[in-house]
Amino acid sequence: MTSSPSRKLAVSIERWPIAGSFTISRGAKTEAVTVVATVSQDGQSGRGECTPYPRYNETPEATLEALRAMQEPFATGLDRAALQAAMPAGAARNALDCALLDLDAKRAGQRVWMLLGRPAPRPCTTAFTISLGTPAAMASATAKAAHRPLLKIKLGGDGDDARIAAVRKAAPECELIVDANESWTPDNLEQNLAVCANAGVTLVEQPLPAGRDEALARIRRPIAVCADESVHDRASLEGLRGRYDAVNIKLDKTGGLTEALAMADAAHALGFEIMVGCMVATSLAMAPAMLLAPQARFVDLDGPLLLAQDRENGLRYDGSLVYPPEAALWG
User: Fold this and answer.
1) Options 3.30.2130.10, 3.40.309.10, 3.20.20.120, 3.40.50.11540; CATH of 124-322
2) Which of 8, 154, 169, 253 is catalytic?
3) How far apart are CA 66 and CA 49, in angstroms?
């Protein structure tokens, strides 16, 4: 790596209020706390956003420090290829990987998908999330979103049969996918899958805790089951065969778009369907994930729709139809 005094990396923590609250089996939150990396060189700059996740032992403060530790390597020539070995997969590397891609695209005067030789993203339908709550509360929230074609229903263990019944009644025409966020057990797994199948649910995401999901290989799965917490990058794919039918690829897990694209190719080769997912964050975090959409059976990039306000030049949402980013946002 060669020294380039004009190369700089700046990092910051941002807080974005959520419209109402966002509740899953692990708890509720009222704001999205993100970390943004900004890289600059020769008058051009690129940005990347990540959402540190406590489930993976990440905090905004630790993520900030991990990125600050990369300021000197970046200043002396660190590129995306070297970054993959220099940092572990996770939120911090995601922010820097996406910032470097944004910078590379701007310096080349090309859209990022052209630079990567990938298909141009097109408008696509995103899922819209219904937070965990009582059956009545979830039915009320679902009724307000019943015009959307695809809903993602957060479940939480006990009482999920009543929740899914209430949601289906409130949205008889919607395609439903559900996310249990590791809240089911081997004892209620088959019953809950059957309830979901009877309600016409298309896919169930992460029903059992990661590392304790062996029961999925021992039962007949009446609907597709998708790994989320059980899958992070390419190294975790092989161990999922026989247990899962699909994988949820999130850039904050893979450590950036570079690994996410390679992971999507590898997942397809192993026969997995793909969901592209997100944390609750702004359009800056969603934009790179749009490059995965052409390979995905399900797109779940509704993070900005859950915020009280998105950032400037955010993605365009027309109902549940999300459009590719403009260059002013990213890429």
Assistant:
1) 3.20.20.120
2) 154
3) 14
The two structure tokens encoding residue 242 = 């026989």
Residue-wise pLDDT tens digits, 166-188: 999 999 999 999 999 999 999 99
List of residues 6+ apart from 78 with CB closer than 8 A: 1, 70, 86
Position 248: which residue type?
N
Q: What is the pTM of this model?
A: 0.94
**Catalytic-labelled residue, pool 106, 152, 250, 253:** 250
Distance between CA atoms of residues 167 and 157, nearest Å: 15
pLDDT, tens only, 272-300: 999 999 999 999 999 999 999 999 999 99
Task: For the domain covering 8-115, report its CATH number.
Answer: 3.30.390.10
| Residue 45 backbone dihedrals phi, psi, to 5 degrees | -140, 150
Determine the Cα–Cα distance for residues 245 and 241; give it in Å rounded to an integer: 8
Quick check: is 250 catalytic?
yes
Pairing assessment for the beta strands 175-179 and 150-154 based on DSSP bridges: parallel
For the question of residue 8 being annotated catalytic, the response is no
